[in-house]
Specification:
The structure is a homotrimer. The first copy, chain A, is an all-alpha fold. Chain A contains five helices and no strands. Chain A has a single domain, classed as Four Helix Bundle (Hemerythrin (Met), subunit A).
């Protein structure tokens, strides 16, 4: 077993990182289920299998799910990079866990606000709060490695 | 040279990970070539260079290539995270390679099914089979680090 | 503190990786500001908050920002993977820094060319130049780990 996984901050990061990836996967599954329920398929071959080419069409709620998913990619994937590096620069476990927890909770609220079309600016606020630990980690990492620019 | 790259499971993960990234790059190159051949450009400045603003337009096959590429991002990028961590929790080389190989082969079939519009549900099955090693890795990782939640 | 972060090539990679992530974040912020200025919202709940449902609409410049951002995801996220692994296979610091610097500068030019709609093929050339260090890293990594296929 590698050295890193025995580091408790890195293990904490891994725990939250995997939960975030599962959250993304759940959004993909929801999108697929909504496509089936609304009969709105992006590809003619899928429409043909589910009733005919008239179902090769867009649906506003499917597009909403897509936007939620793409926003997750834009934010969770960079977090996976920042969190991994941040875990290696020696933060305290409590502070690191707080960063990861704020991100997980804000991004979960972001997905809920998107899927249920909660009143603005709920979703935007969740996005902004989730970015705070990311900017914090980015700044701390840059200070730790700036000598190697 | 770092310790990790001398770990044979991690090296195996790296091999498959790089092939998957190259597969994504190939999809991007195909999309660009299809844009040129179909004369369908997302940006007016590109259309102007290739014959005029009438080619600033959408094309169904270009959009298909785009969807294939975005689906790759949604699935291959989280795999790169899960596979790296999974390699650090001490799986046997044979079991780990089987996870990576199933994912690479399923995602390659997924791209082929998308680009050639193979009859449904070929593409969906390829997507689902590729998710199985991902869920397997996610569960094993969570069990390994749950104590650090 | 983990062993890796004391590796100077890895630290150099981290420095450029974080700058690239910040560059992506800036594109997201620009997109949001353009949505507000152009009053073009992807979600009805956002439009309602900013003047009415008539602002639930697409805008060509917002779509341009979106394409710039998605292109960043397609290229910067795989770089974060390739750069991390490449740092572990023992390149010289000078050669590695050159790979990272070419990528950062080309991707920055790519974003500028996209946002200002610079004459073609500026943006495409920036994309191609940025891919050269990525292909170089991919090939060197495959040669280093091919024995573990």
């Amino acid at each position: 077993m590698a050295v890193m996984i025995r580091n408790e901050v890195f293990s904490c990061y891994v725990f939250y990182g995997v939960l975030l990836v599962i959250k993304m996967y759940i959004l993909a599954i929801i999108t697929g289920q909504v496509r089936l329920r609304k009969k709105a398929f992006a590809n003619p071959e899928d429409a043909l299998r589910h009733g005919g080419l008239q179902y090769h069409r867009q649906d506003p709620y499917v597009e909403r799910c897509r936007r939620a998913h793409i926003n997750d990619m834009e934010n969770i994937l960079p977090f996976l990079f920042l969190g991994a590096i941040y875990s290696m620069i020696g933060p305290s476990l409590a502070v690191a866990r707080f960063h990861f927890l704020v991100f997980l909770m804000s991004r979960t609220l972001h997905s809920i606000a998107y899927l249920f079309a909660l009143q603005a600016p709920t979703r935007s606020l969740a996005y902004i709060v989730a970015q705070i630990p990311c900017f914090s980690m980015a700044v701390q990492i840059l200070m730790a490695v700036a000598a190697y620019a």
